Sensor of ECF-type sigma factor (Chryseosolibacter indicus), 147 residues
Amino acid sequence: MKALLKIFLLALLAIPVLGQNTEEDLQEDHAPVDVNVREKIRAAHIAYITDKVSLTPEQAEKFWPLYNEFTDKRRSIFRKIRNNPADNLELRQQALDLEKQYSARFLKVITEQQLIELRHAEADFKRLLLKRIQQGQTPARRQRNNR
């Protein structure tokens, strides 16, 4: 129970670090998503990664700003891939280079085992999220159905 409380508190503390989504950011993604839903997904993502990677509060304090910087840059590259299919190979190489660069930076904050767990946790969270979306169990849909 204490672990869940710590994870929840870490998630709440990390939300302001994530930054605000602008209207432009929301329009660039695949489908329009309610900002509230996006924040809930981010909070769940933070809690899930923090738990699966077993981040200490000290590690989390240093890790999350770095991870958010990495994901922003990675998201930018993948948007370019979607918009410029002709540059696909070059952009994928940029994504790999970014991964290498940030892996080295992550290792200054977390252990090698935690880095491996991070990669697994990212993939697992994505699978869980997609499964919930396919089942129609997104938080926004549940709220609409309960009205």
User: Anything to note?
Assistant: The helical segments are 2-18, 23-28, 35-53, 57-83, 88-106, 112-134, 139-145. The two ends are 31 Å apart (CA to CA). Residues 2-69+101-145 form one domain. Confidence is low (pLDDT under 50) at residues 4-29.
